[in-house]
Write a structure and sequence with these properties.
globular; binds nicotinamide-adenine-dinucleotide; 14 strands; 463 residues; alpha/beta; 13 helices
């Protein structure tokens, strides 16, 4: 097991010095007590800590970072509100012949750096404000990655599981038609999100193309490869989590070899990240799904554990010396914790009990604001979601490039380019971390906001 260390030469190293004993990193004081929180305000697990809405979080983060950098207050004012929010009625004929009218939204936050980009979700709790908040997050995420897109998010307030495949197809085509004037490969490019999938994106692309009179694959990303989707898109968020985890461990230590890692959530993000980290020499000691997890201090065979997609809820059926609850997994004595399941799992209730020396956010918004503060006070770095899981939007950008150029890339090329983009983003955020006060999350937002502000200043306000 390597010894993890802080680089003494680093200008603003946190208080803790990481030393590894029995497969884990501890702070030098031996204390795990503290002196005293996504683009995705998803599920709230804490009764005691009120969950911020996605919009509240996005606006709070904007104001907090704006205070730290030299930025024109007029630009901040423009960024605090979306450019436009489209609300549409989506009438759908159900299989029994009746008609139900659903409400759909598309919030377009900022496009100063390029076309709007962001997911479309089908979920009963989709609201205007949620779309605005998540759209703002997409603006920051694209800017952190230096992708020439702005931020948007949309959705329909519907339980997709209550609809048949035919009903979902009719809903998607009608929603696309309602948004047709405001989306397009050069204006706003949707993608899958909660409750939508590659098939949904194929219907969206087909509906848009039929009305345009030409096949327009660049109107949407996350499509099946047969209609212009990219190789490597599905695995990209997990791959980026693995790449950023490797960079972060190298920053505080010599490398991944033997580093113990616990991963909550063994779905697309968690399983892809865990398997790559395992391939790269890390010791993945615990993984979980919604039912709980398995723990083996000697390391799990991650490739033989089926992911959520391969066989839902199979984690607990694996042979391992110990099973753990999801709460216990978060508090395991490991080097790196990767929460990759849902939002708001590291809260003010358990942040003082986190023993990992480093947290890398695989899920969107797994750490509440209060937990962020507690972990910062304890010197536990949290590498934020806007950087760590940004592989998804990055490969979406590659998909769009392939679509508009009518040329597909090999999986090898996608993975190489992704690695290069993630490395570049890591270096920029690292530099900001070392030169500004604050956490890794603050540093990522400083990078994002500086780029967006520069673009606003260069373009100016017209008329
Ligand atoms: P997924 O549905 O493929 O997998 C989710 C996993 O988490 C499953 O193993 C499930 O059993 C487990 N899980 C569900 N509820 C849980 C709970 N309460 N406690 C512990 N485990 C639980 O989902 P995914 O695509 O891997 O997404 C995971 C997270 O990453 C979400 O926050 C999502 O918003 C975020 N994310 C996903 C992508 C993407 O493109 N897939 C991109 C960026 C961020």
């Amino acid at each position: 097991m390597p010894e993890l260390r802080r680089d003494d030469a680093k200008p603003k190293s946190p208080d803790r010095v990481m030393t590894s004993t029995s497969g884990a990193i501890h702070d030098d004081s031996g204390s795990t007590d503290s002196a005293d929180d996504d683009p995705d305000a998803t599920e709230d697990r804490s009764d005691a800590e009120p969950t911020e809405t996605a919009l509240e979080t996005a606006q709070r983060q904007l104001c907090s970072v704006a205070d730290r950098i030299d930025i024109d207050p007029n630009v901040v004012e423009r960024l605090a509100e979306p450019k436009r929010v489209h609300e549409v009625a989506v009438p759908v004929e159900l299989d029994d012949g009746s008609v139900e009218v659903f409400t759909g939204y598309r919030a377009q936050h900022d496009s100063v750096r390029g076309p709007y980009k962001g997911g479309i979700r089908y979920h009963p709790e989709v609201t205007r404000d949620e779309c605005v908040g998540l759209g703002m997050w997409m603006t920051w995420k694209c800017a952190v990655m230096d992708i020439p897109f702005g931020g948007a998010k949309g959705g329909v307030a519907v339980d997709p599981k209550s609809l048949s495949d035919d009903e979902r197809e009719r809903l998607t085509r009608r929603f696309t038609q309602e948004l047709r004037d405001v989306i397009g490969p050069n204006t706003d490019i949707p993608a899958p999100d909660m409750g939508t999938d590659p098939q949904t994106m194929a219907w969206l692309m087909d509906a848009y193309s039929m009305q345009e009179g030409e096949t327009t694959p660049g109107v949407v990303t996350g499509k099946p490869p047969s209609v212009g989707g990219s190789e490597g898109r599905d695995a990209a968020p997990g791959r980026s989590v693995a790449i950023i985890t490797r960079r972060a461990v190298e920053y505080y230590d010599d490398g991944l070899e033997g580093t113990s890692i616990a991963v909550q959530g063994y779905g697309s993000v968690g399983a892809n990240a865990a398997r790559l980290l395992d391939d790269w020499g890390a010791n993945v000691v615990a993984v979980s799904d919604v039912n709980g997890g398995v723990y083996d201090p000697d390391g799990l065979e991650t490739r033989s554990i089926p992911s959520h997609d391969e066989e839902p809820e199979a984690v607990m059926r694996q042979d391992a010396p110990r099973t753990v609850t999801n709460d216990e997994l978060l508090e395991l004595d490991v080097d790196v914790l990767v929460p990759a399941a849902i939002g708001n799992v590291v809260t003010r209730e358990n942040a003082s009990d986190i023993q990992a020396a480093l947290v890398v956010e695989g899920a969107n918004g797994p750490t509440t604001s209060r937990a962020d503060e507690i972990l910062a006070d304890r010197g536990i770095p949290v590498i934020p979601d806007v950087l760590a899981n940004a592989g998804g939007v990055t490969v979406s950008y590659f998909e769009w490039l392939q679509d508009i150029n009518r040329r597909s890339w090999s999986l090898e090329r996608v993975n190489e380019e992704l690695e290069s983009e993630m490395d570049g983003a890591w270096e920029t955020v690292r530099e900001a971390y070392e030169t500004h006060e604050g956490t890794w999350r603050d540093a990522a937002y400083v990078v994002a906001l500086s780029r967006i502000a520069d673009a606003h200043e260069a373009r100016g306000l017209w008329p």
